[in-house]
Amino acid sequence: MKATASIEHQVSERERGGRGTATVERLTQAGEGGYEVDPTGRQRIVAAPLDRLWKVGHITQREFDAGDKYRGLHHVADLDPAAPSVDWGRVGGSFGPRPPSMFTAQHIASAREQVRSIDKAIPDRSVVSVLLYLGLIKERALHEIGASIFGADNERDARNLGRAGFRTALASLADIMRA
Asked: Domain boundaries in the chain?
């Protein structure tokens, strides 16, 4: 309860000062230390296991780069090139028939091809594949990963198992991507 009151106070102070912030609910869900303020004053939720492990120095630059690239490729590959989006070329902006130029059909197809290539190198439905999916794509918390994959009952053991398994999966991904 005390942590929630502290977060509510921080959010109200930031809003009163005209600075943007995440909602109290989102910050509370991220947990203590689940957000950071960058030098420009913007808040960023750091709930993703990849970001949290990187922030505390539990993974190497090589592992972070591989995980971040794989996560980004999945994001672009999941876009629907036929979906309407904002047409930034029109005055005032409006919904246009094509995606913004940074996500052309060619970029999306290239990302899908790269994801398929990486996924072929990872044995289908292996523990590594599931760990990467839960940690990078679904961005589940480490204790959720440890509980669902390794069956740990208490939260501390689940978090430790999730962290160890996810770090191993990131190392395998970095080897596959040769990052």
From this structure: 2-47, 52-177
- pLDDT > 70? residue 34: no
Rounded CA-CA distance 147/158 in Å is 5
Residue type, 83: A
- Do the Cβ atoms of 76 and 107 come closer than 8 Å? yes
Provide the token pair at 175: 């080897």
CA distance 170 to 165: 9
Would you call 47 exposed, middle or buried from its count of C-beta atoms within 10 A (0-12, 13-18, 19+)? Answer: middle
Residues 3-10: contacts with CB within 8 Å, 24+ apart? 3/28, 3/32, 4/28
Instruction: Report which of 82, 39, 69, 90 is spatially closest to residue 136, judged by C-alpha positions.
Output: 69
SS3 167: helix
Whether the model clears a pTM of 0.90, i.e. scores above it, the answer is no
In terms of DSSP H, where are the helices of 82-154?
105-121, 127-132, 142-150
Residue with tokens 């947990």: 31
The pLDDT value recorded for residue 29 is: 57
